[in-house]
Design a protein that fits this description.
Layout lengths: L9 H4 L13 H13 L6 E3 L9 E5 L5 E12 L3 E8 L2 E11 L1 E8 L2 E8 L1 H13 L5
Antiparallel strand pairs: 1-2, 2-3, 3-6, 4-5, 6-7
Length: 141
């Protein structure tokens, strides 16, 4: 079990994350993300690798009570025309709450076991993934 400290340094969080190559073994990084998220399970519904000090395009989102779904090299390829205001918090900025404009639904391309898959998300999962992709792109809420 490897629980990492949540990064709060805006200089680090402003860095763009690098794409994960097919040859990289990210098994331990995914385990570390899950272990760290579980330490914050009362408030954590998503966590990006940059938030624990790894500049890689990987995040996890909560998929049920204690299940986490890893998303590797995500890219939004389609989105709804509808937006809504989302009030969000972030583990990296625990004392802040911001209102952000988010698409109602998105379609992403991401990798699963080195194969590219398409996934459509709406509601809370879409909001979480948009928040985590912002982290990967160095955008702070």
């Amino acid at each position: 079990m490897a629980v990492h400290e949540i990064i709060k340094d805006e200089k680090v969080l402003s860095l763009k994350s690098e794409k994960v190559s097919k040859s990289e073994d990210i098994t331990q990084l995914i385990r570390d993300l899950i272990d760290t998220a579980n330490e914050h399970k009362e408030t954590c519904i998503g966590l990006s690798a940059i938030q624990i000090g790894f500049q890689k395009r990987i995040c996890i989102i909560r998929n049920g009570e204690d299940n986490w779904f890893p998303i590797i090299n995500p890219m939004i390829i389609q989105h709804s025309t509808g937006h809504h205001q989302s009030t969000e918090k972030c583990l990296s900025f625990p004392d802040q709450e911001r209102t952000v404009k988010r698409w109602d639904s998105i379609t992403i391309m991401h990798e699963v076991r080195s194969k590219v898959q398409k996934r459509k998300l709406s509601g809370t999962p879409a909001i979480i993934v948009q928040h985590e992709i912002d982290h990967m792109n160095g955008i702070l809420i």
